[in-house]
């Protein structure tokens, strides 16, 4: 028996990531009574990037695909990494906020800002409009698998907060797989799970590097999510018999 599998990306495909990060930063600045606006948000994100990229431990495979704005609310405590690596990553958020607040000329408490960001960012994990019904429509004839880059704690927390977790039969997170999405090794891990006549009908995602490469290395059809092609359109691209 043939079973069709649709492999779907999470960030900026089913739920907003980049825009949600900016909105949460802006909301933190509002709470701290610091003038927000695009420039102030850029300043915070630049500080976050500086702090994250300056940490040599971010190359560990559990966190190598964590973006600097994601690192502001990722939980590193329970990741299967050496103690020294965990110690070096925990506190990244407070250090980044200290840099950011200094750059903004604010003496606000960095730990307060970091906590506020975690709370406000979590509240913004909501699927794009129509995503639930598009997934349900695909689910009538497909198994849904999720393939996402990042660390297991944050990606699984986002999936849980989105309310979409129970629609997916398999979840592949790059940090767990041990290889980034788009590499031959990640694709091989997905392929190994294609047991009992399962075949991939389509890969959907917004990235022309990671998602497209997953489709290309697997030899599977790709639907790119853009401002014009939303996830809600994906069921119409399915060519399953
Ligand atoms: Mg994405």
TrEMBL record:
Its EC number is 3.1.3.-. One of its GO terms (molecular function) is hydrolase activity. The keyword Magnesium applies. Keywords: Hydrolase, Magnesium. The keyword DNA repair does not apply. This is HAD family hydrolase. It comes from Lentzea kristufekii. The lineage of its organism: Bacteria, Bacillati, Actinomycetota, Actinomycetes, Pseudonocardiales.
């Amino acid at each position: 028996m043939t079973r069709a599998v649709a492999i779907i990306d999470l960030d900026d495909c089913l739920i907003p990531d980049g825009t949600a990060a900016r909105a949460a930063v802006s909301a933190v600045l509002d709470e701290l009574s610091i003038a927000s606006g695009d420039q102030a948000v850029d300043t915070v994100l630049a500080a976050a990037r500086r702090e994250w990229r300056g940490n040599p431990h971010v190359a560990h495979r559990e966190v190598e695909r964590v973006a600097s704005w994601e690192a502001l609310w990722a939980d590193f405590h329970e990741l299967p990494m050496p103690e020294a690596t965990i110690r070096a990553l925990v506190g990244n958020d407070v250090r980044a906020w200290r840099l950011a607040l200094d750059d903004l000329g604010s003496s606000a408490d960095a730990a307060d800002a970091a906590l506020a960001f975690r709370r406000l960012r979590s509240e913004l994990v909501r699927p794009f409009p129509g995503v639930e019904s598009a997934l349900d429509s695909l689910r009538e004839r497909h198994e849904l698998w999720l393939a996402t880059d990042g660390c297991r704690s944050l990606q699984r927390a986002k999936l849980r907060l989105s309310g979409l977790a129970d629609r997916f039969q398999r979840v592949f997170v790059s940090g767990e797989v041990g290889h980034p999405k788009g590499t031959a090794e990640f694709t091989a891990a997905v392929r190994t799970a294609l047991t009992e006549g399962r075949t991939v009908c389509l890969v959907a995602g917004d990235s022309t590097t990671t998602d497209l490469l997953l489709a290309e290395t697997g030899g599977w059809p790709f639907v790119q999510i853009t401002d014009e092609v939303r996830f809600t359109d994906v069921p119409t691209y399915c060519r399953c018999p």
